[in-house]
Amino acid sequence: MDEQVLIETPRGRLVGMLHRPPGPASAPGVVFCHAFGEERKSSALAMARLARAVAATGRPVLRFDYYGCGDSEGAFIESDAATRLDDVRAAVRFLQHAGGREEFLLLGLRLGGTLAARAAEEAAGCAGLVLVEPVADGRAYFDGLTRRSLVRGMLTRGSGGAPEGGAHREAAGEGDVLDLDGFAMRPAAARSLGALGIRSGEVAFGGPVLVCQVHFRDAARPDMEGVCAAYRTAGAAVTFERLVLPPFWNRVDVAVAPELDRVVCAWLSH
Q1: What is the mean pLDDT of the chain?
Q2: Strand order of the sheet with strand 209-215?
Q3: Under 8 Å between Cβ of 245 and 260
Q4: Tally of CA atoms within 13 A in the half-sphere of 93 that contains its CB
Q5: CATH label, 2-137+197-268, candidates 3.40.50.620, 1.20.1640.10, 3.40.50.2000, 3.40.50.1820
Q6: 144 to 29, 118, 147, 216: CA distances (angstroms)
Q7: Which of 81, 98, 203, 242 has CB atoms 3.0–4.6 Å from 192's, for a disulfide?
Q8: How far are the Cα atoms of 82, 123, 163 from residue 187, in angstroms, in the given order?
């Protein structure tokens, strides 16, 4: 059963969707942390289907919109890494209360995976992590967003070549606002999110971790191998699954990922 819920925070209400299992919950619930910007929109259907698939295994699942995103209160430009991490904590508390269990798991897609990884470091009761194509290097990720925005603007306006090095970060902004794939964000907020990453020596979570690579090819990519290595160094039991699928968070058409549903549900069941 799907139920829209409101999550109270000091900044405002977050809108969420609670997916309840068909019967009494038989295992800890899962909080989903969605992707950033356009990736969130493109992956919405796939994440909703995954949430329902997980709920069908006996776990309540909570999806929610961060402050300033989707139907939640606030403006996108007012959000940063700190507000998003606060929102994850609020969502965890809501699920703990709704499900009557202290234990929970976090599942994150792309930048949501990186936020879930950071939240798991400090959250009492986190029993596991599912990271779907997590952003291992936040700075490189945001550099890519600003570069794409700059190129898109040049094509629209017929401007010259793109600046080299880090200059695209300044050129993509107008005044004190950056255009990140069509989403307005202040430079300080982008820097706070860009500082996130999953690196060896910076990871302390030692619980079970599922890392899902989603790519056109089966070969393991260095960034995903690095994420796995970071958690293994911390003592975590890491499962690495390589799914040969198109990146559904970058599609302009309706995209689903049934193989991801199968892999995640199988891992949660063991």
Answers
A1: 91
A2: 2-8, 13-19, 61-64, 29-33, 104-109, 126-132, 209-215, 238-244
A3: yes
A4: 11
A5: 3.40.50.1820
A6: 34, 22, 5, 20
A7: 81
A8: 14, 28, 18
pLDDT category of residue 168 using cuts at 50, 70 and 90: very low
- Residue 13 has a CB neighbour count (10 Å cut-off) of 16
pLDDT of residue 153: 66
In this prediction, residue 159 carries a pLDDT of 52
Q: 172-185: per-residue pLDDT in tens?
A: 444 588 888 789 99
Residue tagged 């619930």 (tokens): 29
Two tokens, residue 111: 């930048």
Task: List, for residues 56-71, the tens digit of each pLDDT value.
Answer: 999 999 999 999 999 9
Amino acid present at 5: V
Q: Which two three-digit tokens encode residue 160? A: 């010259």
